[in-house]
Input
Amino acid sequence: MPVSNQPSADAIIVGAGLAGLVTAAELLDAGKRVVIVDQEPEASFGGQAWWSFGGLFLIDSPEQRRLGVKDSIELARQDWFGSAAFDREEDAWPKRWAEAYLDFAAGEKRAWLHAKGVRFFPIVGWAERGGYSATGHGNSVPRFHVTWGTGPGVLDPFVARVREGMESGHVTVRHRHRVDELITRDGAVVGVRGAVLAPSPAARGEASSRDEVGEFELEAAAVVIATGGIGGNHDLVRAQWPARLGTAPTHMLSGVPAHVDGRGLGIAERAGARLINGDRMWHYVEGIENWDPVWARHGIRILPGPSSLWFDATGTRLPAPLFPGFDTLGTLERLRTTGYDHSWFVLTQKIIEKEFALSGSEQNPDLTGKNVRLLAKRLGPGAPGPVEAFKERGADFVVADTLEELFVGMRERSGDAPLDTEEIEREIVARDREVENEFTKDLQLTAVRGARRYRGDKILRVATPHRILDPKAGPLIAVKLHVVTRKSLGGIETDLDARALGADGSPVPGLYAVGEASGFGGGGIHGYRALEGTFLGGCLFTGRQAGRAIGRA
Output
């Protein structure tokens, strides 16, 4: 096969996702020449960040203050370290990255993005609410800032900067170039080699062919691994599944395209980089099958408010504080003890209209398209259009006027799980009795009322407490939920300049890692649990650190 001769550069970036583009933008600002190689066609430029909801973690922002939220870096540090629960020798660099990222999120992050044209939706979301002690997991206050334009809105300034570099000749982008090996010389990484893949008509996110039509080699002073995590590779997810979360599900949906395959991690390891915390991962338990899929097993995550009643596959209500939106991995761990791969939300039309949002840029056309008129409909009657489309067409939704009819639909979708509908009915009736007073022993109702004391939740996110069996709140709705793969929390160990570290703890000369490939910094900046809004932010921060470090070299 022919060899592709590529131009020389100061740095080679492997992966054209958000972290790689941020790195490239910083290198351009430093006057460097960059080559970006990516195995996917041009249609997928920007990677999986394009599909995201665009949530970013900020501390003590103007948006928070306008809503009466009192935040501080001390409170955020308490939440971060309480969630991360760092407990390993390998957590030394992740801890340092966590401290640096907190400083960034409380400091120049917002101003830096604002200067690039990034703007935020005025209502701050409250994700991962925790529900344990003040020193435990979760966000004590709302910190989830949705980007105006969602994931594409986060990408736009960096895509634009890279395209400027392409026009000036300082950036070369080579799509359909798959890196298979890092070139090393005298212990240093000096380039990449791999296969040129055949042109592909695949649209964004669709699987592309792996037909090889050539070979290539590239050399540069620095190589940056920006290839993402393992969420699209279910075999690798299962291989690294931790015993503390029970057994891996037999059936999982994919929250990321198939090209998020983990190949870059193994390639970096073979060149001397150290991989750590591979058993730490972040998968959601509120996944539904996409009725209009882009990739295989395409799952969409419900971003739920706190009011839906949550039952496991057998009909047992989940215990406090495993309410919708409170503790992702705690809920996953609990559900893996049941022996079944699904669970259930039971709710009303009144709840779905106020509390259901769907993760993803394509599921939020109002925010993604910056359409104020369409956005205003969220405050009116009815659920958002994409939510209604899933309710009408999604295989996981059951809609009924009576509990008896609802249970018929749930049984039809339960497979071999012994669904105890009598237990579900008992829980619903008992919970409904508790709504009659403003005080209650039902901790979920207490949490709902507490959430509504936050202005943002009351306006847009949390329904007024009501009886599930109130006909005026109907119809009744049940949603079958699946595990949907998403993020790797471990990866290539790096120092604060994003230099990849070897087994002896010293930098591998010439090799850097950013984004999810680096566990979003240090090989595991989140520890065991994430606070949300920190994944895109980790891509931004690690890319910035790497680009500036290489630019100084």
The chain has a mean pLDDT of 96.
